[in-house]
Amino acid sequence: MLLEVRGLTKRFGGLLAVDQVSFGVKHAAVHAIIGPNGAGKTSVFNCITSFEKPTSGVVLLDGARIDGLAPHVVAAHRVARTYQNVRLFPHVSALDNVLIGRHRLLKAGIWDAIAGTRRFRQEQAAALEVARELLAFVGISHRGDTLARNMPYGDQRRLEIARALATDPRLLLLDEPAAGMNPQEGMRLVGLIQRIREERGVTVVMIEHHMRVVMAVSDRITVLDRGHVLAEGRPAEIHADERVIAAYLGTPAADDRPPSDFREVRGA
Questions:
Q1: What are phi and psi for residue 161, nearest 5 degrees?
Q2: Helices 153-165 and 94-102, interaxial angle, to 10°?
Q3: How far apart are CA 64 and CA 150, in angstroms?
Q4: How far from each other are the two terminal CA atoms of the chain, in whole angstroms?
Q5: Which SUPFAM superfamilies does the annotation name (predicted)?
Q6: CA–CA dist 96, 100 (Å, integer)
Q7: Hey, how many other C-beta atoms are within 10 angstroms of the C-beta on 129?
Q8: Considering all CA atoms of the chain, what is the largest pairwise distance in Å, rounded to the nearest integer?
């Protein structure tokens, strides 16, 4: 296992957002976390990355505890993430957004930058090459000089992934990467996530409501409902789990069959 979450609990005053959540993710796997709105999915991500301190429980990365560490220390353990709402630097170019993600790995200090030392120039040139390669990897090399705020929404999502990859992660957390995408864009995202795993060896954990994306790319799925784990298994097992369907749709009357993306995927 690369990531192990054991008994994770998070309280906000009287609200129990995460309730004894446990799951594990193997190296180079794609693991999805799904569930209705308010199920506690993003709170789990926030605890893994130390944006929130768990009330109790343990988070292990390759066997070492990372729960309770400062967020920048967790990032230094090669954990990167994207967000439910796009968080780019809107007034700089796509290329510079990716370079910002790369700067954490640079060794040259402020005096190297001021003096323009050879070390600084070499690192900057190498970072620029990586940034351009990552823009091409996510399919937006033609957007390098475009201000982030002027990019189409789907390309902004891809830019966020490129910036996260610039930190050289071994664990990448994607929070609703397909949000706002049409079905064609969603399936292109599936291909990108597969390439991130296969070509770069990165383990991916994603929160996603786009069920066609989830079922197409995930090795295993953890389903949360009201803060606790409702089900976990392979996509085919989750397809067939009536508890999961009820959590998403409610329990229908005998003659009702409400239309939904989940039902459509299940029958696909």
A1: -65, -40
A2: 20
A3: 41
A4: 31
A5: P-loop containing nucleoside triphosphate hydrolases
A6: 6
A7: 10
A8: 76
- Strand order from edge to edge, sheet including 3-12: 15-25, 3-12, 56-61, 64-65
CATH number for the segment(s) 87-168: 3.40.50.300
Domain 1-78+171-192+203-268 CATH assignment equals 3.40.630.30: no
Of residues 236, 233, 210, the one with CA closest to residue 222: 233
Q: Which two tokens stand for residue 266?
A: 């299940």
Instruction: Report the run of H or E that residue 175 belongs to, with start and end.
Output: strand 171-175
Residue 234 CA: distances (Å) to CA of 14, 190, 220? 34, 17, 5
Q: Tens digits of per-residue pLDDT, 206-254?
A: 999 888 899 999 999 999 999 999 999 999 999 888 888 887 756 544 4
- pLDDT of 158 higher than 90: yes
pLDDT value of position 253: 42
Length of the chain: 268
Alpha carbons 70 and 50: distance in angstroms, whole number: 6
How many C-alpha atoms does 4 have within 13 Å on its Cβ side?
Answer: 8
Range list for CATH 3.40.50.300 in the chain: 1-78+171-192+203-268, 87-168
